[in-house]
């Protein structure tokens, strides 16, 4: 019954955590028994079971419970098969979604060598616009996962394609993640390539694309600032934040010290 398999998938992460904590007693139980079930259920015929399997896999990766060898030899090959050009449409959409979500949890080498080539292919998928849209929406995360060199060499050309896609939703998704992509590139690429590209989005024929671009204008401009002097940086969740300058920290500490001294003096006077 699909409901039984779905329930089983929901129990896998807590069981895996228990086995990890009791590893001396069960040294190979997770790798021999549980991990093969998770991998198998990624291709289950029932979509609810597959969804539960995907969620379980992400939790296991987030908790760092999956060995690097299992990621490279079991998980990645399945996802590459499911996202192949001749794969079923539903399976392909799910596979590209899970690839994008797990990229930030894997090592840079694994993402670059095993998943990045397929991601670049999926960015140009002419059959399913849903696949291209998932790639566009997660483009900044992939850039952050592989770093500047791979971003400029392989991903920026694909980003240009998506920014000129005939589907306006694709261009809108690119405008929304523009800051994250820009933050990963060098100042020269930012100035010479991304700036003209952003102007094309801010002048787009679709008002939804223009609106998204205008909302990203400030964050995009912030990527031109020197982080050490401007105090701007990108959090792990991709949002822009401001780091207090050393002068501000010193000033706040000094103020706090003065407040304490003042309170002490007031107490003594009383």
UniProtKB/TrEMBL annotation:
Any single GO CC term annotated in Swiss-Prot or TrEMBL for this entry: cytoplasm
Keyword annotations of the record: Repeat
Protein name: PP4R1 phosphatase
GO molecular function term, any single one: protein phosphatase regulator activity
Keyword RNA-binding included in the entry's annotation: no
UniProt cross-references to InterPro entries, sorted A to Z: ARM-like, ARM-type_fold, HEAT, HEAT_type_2, PP2A_Regulatory_Subunit_A
Pfam families in the record: HEAT
Domain of life of the native organism: Eukaryota
Transmembrane segments: none
Intervals holding HEAT repeats: 115-154
Organism per entry: Crypturellus soui
């Amino acid at each position: 019954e699909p409901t039984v398999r779905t329930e089983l998938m929901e129990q896998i992460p807590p069981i895996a955590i228990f086995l990890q904590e009791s590893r001396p007693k069960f040294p190979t139980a997770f790798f021999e028994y549980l991990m093969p079930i998770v991998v198998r259920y990624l291709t289950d015929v029932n979509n609810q079971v597959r969804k539960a399997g995907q969620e379980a896999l992400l939790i296991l990766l987030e908790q760092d419970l999956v060995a690097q060898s299992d990621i490279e030899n079991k998980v990645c090959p399945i996802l590459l098969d499911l996202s192949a050009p001749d794969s079923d449409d539903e399976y392909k959409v799910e596979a590209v979604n899970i690839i994008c979500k797990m990229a930030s949890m894997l090592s840079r080498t694994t993402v670059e060598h095993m998943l990045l080539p397929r991601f670049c292919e999926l960015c140009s998928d002419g059959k399913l616009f849903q696949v291209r849209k998932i790639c566009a929406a997660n483009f900044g995360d992939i850039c952050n996962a592989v770093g500047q060199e791979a971003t400029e060499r392989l991903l920026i050309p694909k980003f240009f394609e998506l920014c000129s896609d005939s589907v306006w939703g694709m261009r809108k998704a690119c405008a929304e993640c523009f800051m994250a992509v820009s933050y990963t590139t060098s100042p020269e690429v930012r100035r010479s390539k991304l700036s003209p590209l952003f102007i094309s989005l801010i002048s787009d024929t679709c008002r939804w694309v223009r609106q998204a671009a205008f909302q990203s204008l400030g964050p995009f401009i912030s990527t031109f600032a020197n982080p050490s002097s401007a105090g701007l940086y990108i959090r792990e969740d991709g949002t822009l934040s401001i780091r207090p300058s050393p002068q501000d920290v010193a000033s706040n500490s000094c103020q706090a010290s003065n407040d304490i001294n003042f309170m002490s003096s007031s107490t003594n006077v009383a």
